[in-house]
Amino acid sequence: MDRAGNRHEGRPAVESATTERPTSRGTRFAATKFRPAPLPTTLVTRSALHDRLLAGASQRLTLVVGAAGTGKSLLLASWAAARPAGLTSWLSCDVADTDPVRFWAGFIEAIRVWVPWFGAEAAGLLAMDEVVLADVTASIVNDAANLPAESAIVVDEFQYAAGPAARDVTTLVERWPAETVQLVLASRMDPPLRLHRLRMTGELCELRDRDLRFSLAESGHLLANFGVQVASADLALLHQRSEGWAAALQMAALSLRGTSDPAWAARAPEVLRHATARYFVEEVLEQQPAEAAQFMLDTSVLSELTADACAVVTGRHDAATLLHSIDAANVFLVALDEERTSFRYHHLVRQLLRARLRARDRGREQQAQLQAGEWFESTGDVRRAARHLLAAKQADRAVALLRDRVFTGFQSDPTLLPPLDLSMIAPSRLVDAPDRLLGLATDLLLSGDSVRGGEYLDLLERAQPAIPPDSELAARLAAAWALRWMLTGQADEAAAETLAARAAEERTRLRGDWNVAVPMVLLRAYTWLEDYEAVEREAAAALAAPEFTEPVKLVLVPGARAVAWLEAGHLAQAADAARTAEAEARRLGFGQHLFAVDCLRALAGLALERRDLDAAEHLTEQALSISERRRPAFQFLALLDQAGIWAARGQVREALTSIEAARLVLAGTESVLLAHADELEALLRLSLGDPSTPTQLAGRLPAVRRAQLLAQIALAAGDHHTAQQHLQSPPGKLTPRRALIRQLLLAATAISRSDPMTVNILAGALHTARLGGFCNTVVATAPQVTEYLVGHWTSPYPDPFTERLTAAAREVRAAQPHASWHRRRTAEPLTPAELRVLKLLPTSTYAQIAAALYVSRGTVKTHLQSVYRKLGVTSRTEAIEWAVNLRLL
Question: Are 136 and 108 in contact (CB under 8 A)?
Fold first, then answer.
């Protein structure tokens, strides 16, 4: 069937949607049960997930599990439409399939749509016995083994049949002829099929909620397909609010389609809530047992769900059982740890649940808040307790809790709490209680509200009498200011205030949780100031400090180190630290905490360096989802990372848009981080043939970056003499990354002037890149080097690094926006065999090509003679050059 629902030749006629099909038992089915829904014109093709499904062909079972509205059915329908006609059978389950006999009759009938002989014996057994015996599944397995190779059967909405059919489906899966037919089950919850055994043996391909979530780019494509155009910052907000939930994005797009309101982005949360409320209630909440639905409503007051916390707010002794049953039902719970003992609701779902609880019984909601607040206070989780107590109208009690222990929860709680609701508190009334006002200000900063947090700090600075400079309160105030400067990317100010706080702490002998502000700020500030030795010094001090918690030592410190090492160019050390920090963040449940942003950004940078752009984009989206919650400096850096990835894809305009969005985040500051945006924008403008803007931007860069950018501008203008002058005497000590960039620019200069030593100069740079593990830096620094790698570079000893480098150079060369060299067509098209030989020509000798393709040297020469004739060239070098121009390489 094609995407319009038309019949393909060779397929038995399928009746209209209202027609029913009789089976051998007399059971009748609507024809729509055996075909997926038509694909909408707004479809976003998800190629990466299609590839994952394709990989499942070699495994015994492919399982797609996701909550309602995550796009399971549409994904599988688009995958089926992309497969060869006649090889994909489809079965949509419904509530009637709780009858096992009916389910198996439908399973047989789904395959008969394409293969009329299938299941004749099994259908006869079902009709005769009206029960599912072992002989039925055995017969189905035997027939499946004789289906055409590469066949697939998709069973959608399997949750309806999973319980009653579990035993027989388990048997079917264990005996399934996976080498011939792919079995795909899609369900809202895990089916009881001994999945752990399949995982252990590597016979299970799984796609889950986290895989089905739309990426930032996919969210943008979906909105665009609905005719909704949004700026990068607005798209990021909508994506963050929806968490990539397909149904929410689609309904928001329908609500926003055709709108001309420029302020729609400010209404995004409201639009999402209204658009999804009815869907969630009808498709999710009302489908739950009554006690589970009430449990979800009561526990919606919690930002983190554990068995103990749920028991407190619901008063139920079986809270642990109910919590895990909701988890198993896949009802928009997100696990916060690998052991699945701590959860949160999907952000949007929690808002819907809380609104429904408040509308039904405001008194019940307030009592639940009070119970939660008192319980968290008893456990020492003061930040969480304060939020619940404020919601329960216990403002004085909440403020008092934050006075001394505001950092306690932050460094041990994996959940990023929202800013306090201070509608009941007038900060001016707290000026006479500066310790309480400072606690509120610091909590606001840690929650990402740097604006109000800064306003409260200003109040404290103006308070009379002034805070004594050698007091404990003065040390804490300096730490709070340092935090505020860090959040807005003002590294110099942050470092100065932190050092002042440290000096005050030493004078007052202050010890305790407030000390965590020192490494938290200095590690970032020194990285931004490119003082990497200071980063190492502070990291060593933090690891040696006994008062810091595991998340600080195992996630924050190695993550910050990883970013510093990545930027300096120590890639192997960065990779070790980032992987360690990311693993510990998962183990501790800190994967969504601000502490995890650094390791995610480092892993994304490493993926970009090896040209794994999909992985880099996915990791950057994770970092952005954490940092965009009003943490300006971190959001700025993640947006720049995103721009770098888009630039690597050749999407220069999109990259420039992301840079502009990043600048808006730090508007009004004089952050040193803005130099990163200046440098990246300059390089992108230069790639578009604009030398004027880069020259202006160069004047705002530090000396080393400025000299290298001016060399790149000179090279773009063909002035290799000026480029050489800018590179001659580096202004200061170079990091390994900057040293490699200098080597590459010197090689580009040699190429530009046709220096006979070009090969040696470039070989030295590539040797450095090989030792350091660089790839993207090599192919993205200078187009002269990129072109040379594609058209002229041959290694006497081809190896994976050389092959990866030349492949990356071809990708970059093909994506360059100003590619303006002459093209011409071949006299006649190249054959597939000739193309295979041509693709190996830049990196291989004739003998190596022959060995790689399992042909003789004579055959290689014959193919190359034909290639030369068709391209109109007479040499290997000319053939490679013209193949590049024609985009054959």
Answer: no
pLDDT digits (tens, 9 = 90+) for 162-200: 888 888 999 999 999 998 899 999 998 889 888 888 888
With CA atoms as reference, report the closest residue to 74 among 92, 56, 60. 92
Q: In sequence order, what are the beta bridge partners of 343?
A: 305, 335
CA angle, corner 752, sides to 750 and 753, nearest 5? Answer: 70
Cα–Cα distance measured from residue 787 to residue 800, given in angstroms and rounded to the nearest whole number: 19
**Cα angle 740, 744, 750; round to 5:** 145
Inter-residue contact 166 to 191 (CB < 8 Å):
yes
In the chain, what is the greatest distance between 2 CA atoms, to the nearest angstrom? 94
Q: How many whole angstroms from its chain centre is CA 224?
A: 20
DSSP letter for each residue of 852-886: HHT--HHHHHHHHHHHHHHHT-SSHHHHHHHHHHT
Residue type present at position 623: A
For residues 264 and 407, which has the higher predicted lDDT (pLDDT)? Answer: 407
- 217: phi then psi, degrees, rounded to nearest 5: -65, -40
Neighbours of 672 (CB within 10 A): 16
> How far apart, in whole angstroms, are the C-alpha atoms of residue 863 and residue 865?
6
Q: Which helix (H) or strand (E) holds 345?
A: strand 343-345
Nearest CA to 49 among 241, 209, 220, 187? 209
Burial class from Cβ neighbours inside 10 Å (0-12, 13-18, 19+) for residue 825 reads exposed
Q: Which of 19-23, 362-366, 577-581 has the highest mean pLDDT?
A: 577-581
- Answer yes or no: is pLDDT of 875 > 80: no
Cα torsion 202, 205, 211, 215 to 10°: value is 110
The number of angstroms, rounded, from the C-alpha of 105 to the middle of its chain's C-alpha atoms is 41
**Distance from C-alpha of 159 to C-alpha of 169, rounded to nearest angstrom:** 12
Rounded to whole angstroms, the Cα distance separating 139 from 124 reads 11
The pTM of this model reads 0.70
Name the average pLDDT for the chain. Answer: 85
C-alpha 253: how far from chain center = 21
Q: Of 216, 213, 215, which is closest to residue 334 (Cα–Cα)? A: 213
Nearby residues of 213 by Cβ (< 8 Å), 6 or more positions away = 70, 243, 244, 245
* pLDDT per position as a tens digit, 626-648: 886 678 999 999 999 999 999 99
DSSP 93: -
Half-sphere exposure in the Cβ direction for 78 (13 Å, CA):
17
| Owner of token pair 């994904």 | 75
Gap between the Cα atoms of 411 and 691, Å rounded:
47
Q: Which of 196, 198, 156, 192 is nearest to 175 (CA)?
A: 198
Instruction: Detail the DSSP E strand segments found in 139-294.
Output: 151-156, 181-187, 204-207
Contact 76, 64 (CB under 8 A): yes
Which amino acid is residue 627, in one-letter code? S
Look at the block and give the residue holding tokens 């040293």.
739
Q: Looking at residues 12-33, what average pLDDT do you find?
A: 54
Q: Which residue has the tokens 């003992």?
A: 341
CB 345 within 8 A of CB 333: yes
Instruction: Please enumerate in sequence order all residues whose Cβ is within 8 A of that of 167, keeping only pairs 6 or more positions apart, or say none.
Output: none
Rg (CA), the chain: 31
d(CA 71, CA 86): 24
Question: How far is residue 257 from each of residues 227, 253, 632, measured CA to CA in Å?
Answer: 6, 6, 30
> What is d(CA 245, CA 263) in angstroms, rounded to the nearest whole number?
23
- Give the Å distances, CA to CA, from 704 to 524, 637, 731: 21, 20, 6
Peptide bond into 465 cis (omega under 30): yes
Q: What tens digit of pLDDT does each residue of 409-462 get? A: 788 777 778 788 877 777 777 777 888 888 888 988 988 888 888 888 998 888
How many residues belong to the chain?
A: 889
